[in-house]
Amino acid sequence: MSRRLEGKVALVTGGTSGIGAGAVRRLAAEGAKVVFTGSRAELGEALAQEVGGRFASHRVEDAGAWPGLIESVLAEHGRLDIAFANAGTEQGDANIEDVTIEGWSKIVGINQTGVMLTVQHAIRAMARNQGATGSIIINSSMNAARPLGNYVTYSTTKAAVVALAKSAAVYCGQKRYRIRVNAILPGVVETDLIRAIMESQPDPAAVRAIYEGMAPMNRMAQVEEVAGLVAYLASDEASFISGAELTIDGATTAGMMGV
Amino acid sequence: MTMARLHGRMALVTGGLRGIGLAIATRLASEGAAVTISDLDAPDSAAVAQALAALGSDAAYLRADVTSEADWASIAAQMEAKGACHILVNNAGTDLTGAVESLSLDAWRKIMAINVDGVFLGTRALVPLMARSGADVAGGASIINVSSIMGLVGYSEVSAYNASKGAVRLFTKGIAVEFAQKRMPIRANSLHPGFVRTPLLNAGFQRWVDKGFAEKPEDLVAAMEAATPNGRLAEPEELAGPAAFLASADASYMTGAELVIDGGWTAQ
Predict the structure, then answer these.
(1) Confidence of residue B2 (pLDDT cuts 50, 70, 90)
(2) Which of A230, A240, A241, A226 is nearest to A8 (CA)?
(3) What is the per-residue pLDDT across A169-228, written as a single tens digit (0 to 9) for each?
(4) Span B10-267: which CATH code?
(5) In this predicted structure, what is the pLDDT of residue B207?
C-alpha cells in the first residue's frame, strides 16, 4: 500500500460498517489520520483500535452537533483534508404511493440534509488550510441514475446529492478554494448489510444471484474496491477532478440494468 | 510518492509522443509498466528518442497510423511477440473546428477516422491478446479511451469533434458491457479531460486566432480559465493519475464508467 495520504486528516461519516468502514481502513492504511462517526459505539471503538483512528458518536442529521465534531477534529489534528460523506439509510423507504411522511423525512434527513451538513462543515474547516485545500467525496449510488420503484426516497436523495456535489464544487472554484467535491455512484456492494439481507431470505443463494446478476460483471463490488476509489479521489492524484460523478458499478448503468 | 502498481504489465499508448499521451505513458512507466507508444513520427526522429529516453529501457516505439488496419495488425503482432498487453490507451486524436455548414465531408471523415475508427480498430486488434493477458493480473486488463468533455456537452463550431468524442464515450460503454457479460477480463472506461495545456490545444487556439476569434492565444487561454470553476487549465500530468488509477487493480470494479477531469467545467 502506498502512503499517498501521509499527513492528511480525514473525516468519514457512517464509518462503523460497510463502505464507510472500508474507507476508514483504506485511508488509514495510506497514512491518513482518520476520525469517523456513527451511532454504534461498540463497532466504532473496535475499528478505531484496529486502525489507530478515533470514533466519534455522532448523527449526521444533528445540525447542532456539527460544530463540536469539527472543532474536536481540528483540536486533535489541527486540520481537515478529506471528508467522506458516507452515512446513509434506506430504512423506512417505500414506493411513491405508500411512503410515509415519517419514512421520507427520516431518510431525507440522513441522506440529504446529513450530506449537506457534512459538506458545509468540511468546507468551512478546509477553507482554513493554507491554500484552502481539501477533497470531499459524497457517497451517492447508481440509483441516482437508475431510480428504484420501491425506494423512492433513497433514489431521490441519492440523485439530490449529486447536484449538491456539483453546486459545492462550482462554489469552491468560484471562491478560489482548492477544495474538490465529487460524488461516487456505486452499484450493489457486498456489505454486511447486504449479506444479512441475503441470509434472512428463504433461499439466500437465489437472492445472491439476483444481486450479482444486476451487473454485467455478474458480481457485487467488494467494499475494498469502493474504498480504493475513495482513496484515489482523496489523493492529490485527482487534482483536476471536481464536480464529477464517478460510477463504480461493473458496467451496470453503462447498459440497461439487469439486461 | 512512488507507487509501483503496474509492475510487470505491458501497455500500449497511441499518440504517445506528446501531450496527454506522453504524460500517461510516462506515468505508466514510472509505476512499473513496460510501455510501447505509437505515433506518426519517423522512428529516428528527435521526439521519439526523447520520449524513449524518458520512458526507460522497457519502452518501445512503433510508427503507426491508428486509421490503418494494416498498422494495427502490425502493432498486434508486435505486442503478441512481447507476450502480453494489459493496458491499452486509445489516446491518438485530432480536432476540427468550424461552422457546421463550412465543414467538408473529407474533413469530417478524417476526424471520424482518427478519433473513432482508431479507437475501434485498436480495440478490435488487441482484445484477443488482452483477454488472455487480463486473466493474469489483479483487476484484469484495462482499455482507457480518451474522450473529452466535448463528448458530453456541445460547443459552438466544434460539432464534428463533439460527434467523434461522443462516439468514443458510448463505444466504451458498449464494449464494457460486452466484455463483462462474456466474462472477459477486460475493463473499459473513458476519460473526459477538460481544457488541457497541450500542443493540440495550442495549435487549435492558434487557428482560432487566425480566424479572428481572438487577438492572441493567451486571450483564449484566459477565457477558458475564466470559464473553468477551478480557474485554470489542466496540466497533462493531471490526466496521467486518473489513467494509472484505471489501469490498476484499484479500479477492479470500474468498467463502463466515465472519468471527467475538467476542474468543474461540466458541473456548472
Answers:
(1) low
(2) A230
(3) 999 999 999 999 999 999 999 999 899 999 999 999 999 999 999 999 999 999 999 999
(4) 3.40.50.720
(5) 87
Q: Mean per-residue pLDDT for B71-93?
A: 98
A172 touching chain B per CB within 8 A? yes
CB-CB: which of B3, B180, B268 is closest to A250? B180
Lookup: cell for A72? 474536536
Cross-strand partners of A9: A33
pTM of the model: 0.94
CATH number of the domain at A20, please.
3.40.50.720
Domain that holds residue A178: 9-189+222-248
A215 touching chain B per CB within 8 A = yes
- Strands in B141-146's sheet, in edge-to-edge order, are B60-63, B34-39, B10-14, B87-90, B141-146, B186-193, B258-261
Contact B28, B2 (CB under 8 A): no
Predicted confidence (pLDDT) at residue B49 exceeds the cutoff of 90: yes
Catalytically annotated residues of A: 154
Taking the domains of chain B in order of start, what are their residue ranges?
Answer: 10-267
Report the domain count for chain A. 1
Q: Do B231 and A173 touch (CB under 8 A)?
A: yes
pLDDT in tens, B27-48: 999 999 999 999 999 999 999 9
Kindly state whether residue A195 falls inside one of the protein's structural domains: no
Which ipTM value was assigned to this complex? Answer: 0.91
Q: Could you tell me if B194 lies within 8 Å of chain A, comparing CB atoms?
A: yes
Residue B234: which of A216, A240, A255 has the nearest Cβ?
A240
